[in-house]
Amino acid sequence: MEPGTVIVTVPGLRGHVEEHWQTRLAAATPNVRPVPPLGRQNPSLDERVVDLHQAIESADGPVVIVAHSGGVITTIHWAARHAESMPGRIRGALLATPPDLTAELPPEYPSLATLAGLGWLPIPLKPLPFPSIVALSSNDTLGDPVRVRAMAAAWGSRIEEIGPVGHLNPASGYGDWPQAEPLITELCTVEVPR
Length: 194
Hints:
There is one protein chain. The chain has 194 residues and is of the alpha/beta class. It has helices at 21-28, 45-58, 70-82, 112-117, 145-155, 180-188; strands at 6-10, 32-34, 63-68, 90-96, 132-137, 158-163. A six-stranded parallel beta sheet has the order 2-1-3-4-5-6, with helices on both faces. Helix 2 (45-58) crosses helix 3. The protein is 31% helix and 17% strand.
């Protein structure tokens, strides 16, 4: 990782999970600042955006955002609200397996009506003002590859095909995700937009 760059990890709609690749990344990598997970019982988008904004504001260097699942949608909403006011702060974002939020999620997740009422929908579809990579799973039950490709195109993101990895979480058999590191390193070396 590039010295001086702060990695801000943004979890999805889950609580703390020791086996999750983001948790392991934070434990094994210097300069990682995790946004605290709020869990599925508190699906507030506004609180997540505030927490992400505070993590970015308090970082003592340029930031690479590493978001997973609902954390990707949090990042997209944060960018729509705040990114233009922080030019040069974000080197880039790794957006791993975003959900498309077009079909009801499994029962343990909030309903689409609840998420819509809390501002998660519609998902902003404007170009991000910083480089981004969408890590696309070919068999994610929460994100149809065709729809995720369309979102990535709207955000101006490069797509990284990561194969049949499900939702890239422990339930899909992923505690470690070694592929994250080279993607983060790629984003760390991008010239910071001004």
